Amino acid sequence: MAYLSRCQIVRKIPELSKFMGSGSVSTSRNSFIATGIRGYASIPALAKNIPRFSLQRIEQYSKKFSGSLIVSANQIRASSTTGDHVRLWQIERIVSAAFIVLLPACVLLNNAVVDVAFSILTVMHAHWGLEAIILDYARPAVVGPILPKVLFASLYLLSIATLAGLMALVYNGPGVGGSIRKMWSIGK
């Protein structure tokens, strides 16, 4: 969107230069303004600074910042470009919405199938949430290349151990719903 905004501004350079205080615009000034505009992120950022600068003042500042204006025009993508993130987001929303039905069903029904479904979805939901935390806060550029790998390995081990413990509770104990009912009846 910012690139499109910059393209629209570059096409309107003669009108922009009149607005900024200079009546005539040469081709060298056109190329200078086009280079300078590339450094701005959006039209509001440019419009905010228009009343303060004339073309002469911009030329003075351009000698100091011309290298950084060109570098800042590059776009760096911080997220991955592979994978089906939309599909994963939809599945995460479905899993979250399924808890509305599964939690009461797990407590009210004494059914191993409902307990297993609730256990699997709980582990998936927790795993995705902790994975997002690791992706956000343990980036290799910030903490180094080793710590994120260790954290992801420990996350997978924790998820597997949690699922194994919940399955043992379902098949060898009262189940997830039965355990919740027993916790609620402690004070009675």
TrEMBL record:
Positions that bind heme b: H125
Coiled-coil ranges (or none): none
GO biological process: mitochondrial electron transport, succinate to ubiquinone; tricarboxylic acid cycle
Cited function: Membrane-anchoring subunit of succinate dehydrogenase (SDH) that is involved in complex II of the mitochondrial electron transport chain and is responsible for transferring electrons from succinate to ubiquinone (coenzyme Q).
Provenance organism: Microctonus aethiopoides
Localisation: Mitochondrion inner membrane
Name of the protein: Succinate dehydrogenase [ubiquinone] cytochrome b small subunit
InterPro entries registered for this protein in UniProt: CybS (IPR007992), SQR/QFR_C/D (IPR034804)
An annotated Gene Ontology molecular function: ubiquinone binding
UniProt lineage: Eukaryota, Metazoa, Ecdysozoa, Arthropoda, Hexapoda
Subcellular location, principal: mitochondrion
UniProt family annotation: Belongs to the CybS family.
Domain of life: Eukaryota
GO cellular component, one term: mitochondrial inner membrane
